[in-house]
Amino acid sequence: MKNPYEVLGVAATASAAEIQSAYRKLAKKLHPDLNPGDKAAEEKFKEVAGAYDLLSDAEKRKRFDAGEIDESGAERPQRHYYRDYATSDQGDRYADAAGFSDFMDQDDAFAELLRRSQQARANRRGQDLQYHLAVDLVDSIAGATKRLTLPDGGTIDVKIPAGLVNGQTLRLKGKGAPGSGKGGPGDALIEVEVRPDRRFTREGDDITLELPISLTEAVLGGQVRVPTPTGDVTMSVPKGSNTGTKLRLRGRGVPRREGGHGDQFVQLKVVLPKSPDPELESFVSGWKDKDYDPREGRA
Questions:
Q1: Which residues make up the CATH 2.60.260.20 domain(s) of the chain?
Q2: Which end of the chain is more exposed for a tag (fewer CB within 10 A), N or C?
Q3: In the 8-state DSSP scheme, what is residue 127?
Q4: Which of the two residues, 35 and 235, has the higher pLDDT score?
Q5: Which of 3.30.450.40, 2.60.260.20, 2.40.30.20, 3.40.50.720 would CATH assign to domain 200-285?
Q6: Which helix (H) or strand (E) element contains residue 267?
Q7: 147-163: pLDDT as tens digits
C-alpha cells in the first residue's frame, strides 16, 4: 500500500481540514458511480478511501506518524478497500450515513449518492453466469435432464424442456454467483446447442425420418417399426409404395407451446438386397410388365 499522504497528495504536515479537502476532491473525481466501467478509477478510489480512513482518524494518524503502524493500519488483519466498506461488520466509517458526514456541509447531493451506492453495494445481487450446453435433437424434442460440469468442477442439473429450439437460453434461478449482504445469488444462463441427428430432421414443429423398406414391403405393403423421438411405433406401408412416398404419423412431432404436437413424416426408401439374388433377377427378367416407363411424363 502506498503512503497515505502521497495517495491524497498532501504533505505530512497537512491539517485535518486540508486532508478532508483533498479527499473530497479525489472522491468526487474517482467515485465508481461517477465512472461506471472504469476499473482504474475504481482501484484508485479504493486507495484514496483507505488513505483517508487512516489519516482522518487522529489516533491512527498519530501512530502512523510515529511509526507504530504501517500504511494499512498495522493491527487490522487486512487492508481495507472500498468494497470492504460495503460488507464489513466492524462498524467502519462508511457502513452507515454517519460515515459521510464529511460531505454534509455543502455537498448534500454527493453525500446522498455515496450513501445510496454504498447501500446498493452492501446488498448487491450476484452476477449471472453464462454457460454452453450441447444436447441431442431427440432430447430437445422429447425433453430430458442433462448434467452440466462447471469450470470449478461442480455440476448443475439442467432440465431440457420438450420442444426446445437450437440457441435457446435457459435461466436457472439462483445458480449464478453469490451476492453480498442481503443480495441474493445471480442466475445461470445456459445457451443450448442442438446437435444434428442422423435420423431426424426438424422443420418447425414437424420432423422427418427417412425409412428404408424392402422390395417386398414396397410391393405388397405391410407393418413396419418406425423410430420416433419418444420410442418406436408400428406403421402401415401401403401396397405399391415407392421411394419418396411420404407417410404421416400425426402428433409424433415437436410439442407446441400452445398445446398439441407437430407431426412426424416418414419418407420411404426402397432398398434392394445387398447381395445379388438370382431368384429376383429371374423373376424380373420374366416379368410381363417389364417395359413400363417409370420416367413417363417427366421432362
A1: 129-195, 200-285
A2: C
A3: P
A4: 235
A5: 2.60.260.20
A6: strand 264-270
A7: 999 888 889 999 999 99
